[in-house]
Amino acid sequence: MNNSWEDNVRRVVPYVPGEQPKETDVIKLNTNENPYPPAPEVRAILDSFDESRMRLYPTPDAAELTDAIAERYGLKSSQVFVGVGSDDVISMAFLTFFNSDKPVLFPDITYSFYDVWADVYRIPYQTKPLRADLTIDPADYKCENGGIIFPNPNAPTGVYESVEMIEDIVKANPDSVVMIDEAYIDFGGESCLPLIEKYDNLLVIQTFSKSRSMAGMRIGFAMGCEKLIKYMNDVKFSINSYTMNTVTQVCGAAAVRDEKYFRDTVQKIIDTREYSKKKLSELGFMFPDSMSNFIFASPHKKSAEYVFTELKKRRIFVRWWDKPIVRDYLRISVGTREEMDKLFAALEEIING
Ligand code: PMP
Fold first, then answer.
1. Mean pLDDT across the stretch 100-114?
2. Is pTM beyond 0.85 here?
3. How many other CB atoms are found less than 10 A from the CB of residue 282?
4. For the domain that residue 305 is a member of, what is the CATH number?
């Protein structure tokens, strides 16, 4: 029996993140983390950090980090909003901009946190099916709506959409905020960031979790016109001013300043991804072309669930969802070349052995 106070509980079905196994001797290809360490300067900062700075509150606008991001992307600091991972940034953006009775639109196969935020904030939403080739049909996003969001490249498909296609959607929706979640854009796609100078309804969201190897630090950011960023900060400062701690701010700023390390690391992952596509094809996998740090691949010869379970027995973690359409696929993060070779040896045994 329920207690009566439970009638008033804000009930939600929470988002389920990928498993973080306690063991360290596993090959972890299930949460799209970067297999390489963060920029070397991050280590140096942690070694010499003056702990007396912890006595003080952090700067509420995370100025050092915001300024470093603004400089890297050629923007004013007032065009950048930072948060505790892009999950925090997207959640704040939902709360700030998706405040209409009309439904927010996003694809039916996409980041599975969007419907959770919509539910928790009581935002109406409608999903739009992907085409058979897993691309987004822009025509689906030209109807009345309370806002639009999708990742580019999409997750978990890895499919990239052109800047022209995004501009088409942004242009057709001057009365809504359009959010493009560019969590994986650094792995080969072209960012739609330049469009923020032309469209005041476009918010571009990125993260340090993938291309900058800092998922554990929790840094995400949004870029848009000054008005959008001001509205987001107003909401943020109405909930919790000090979301980002001082150590994270300083380490994040150092990471974003090391452009060479960033480019080298991203290139290694792109090279391994392209090598992995060849290997997966040889093993009979089917997959849409990926421009991210993961490949969404269907084993074809055996069920995805079977392959997922067999890999896990061999201490190799990939991601599998027991949901329509996607249950035929595995989402495999791109690790180091050595990790991927161990994966392919295991797959050879599971599929052809
Ligand atoms: N957007 C997409 C599409 C993602 O896959 C992820 C990673 N789970 C995120 C946002 C959130 O990443 P983070 O909070 O680590 O920045």
1. 97
2. yes
3. 11
4. 3.90.1150.10
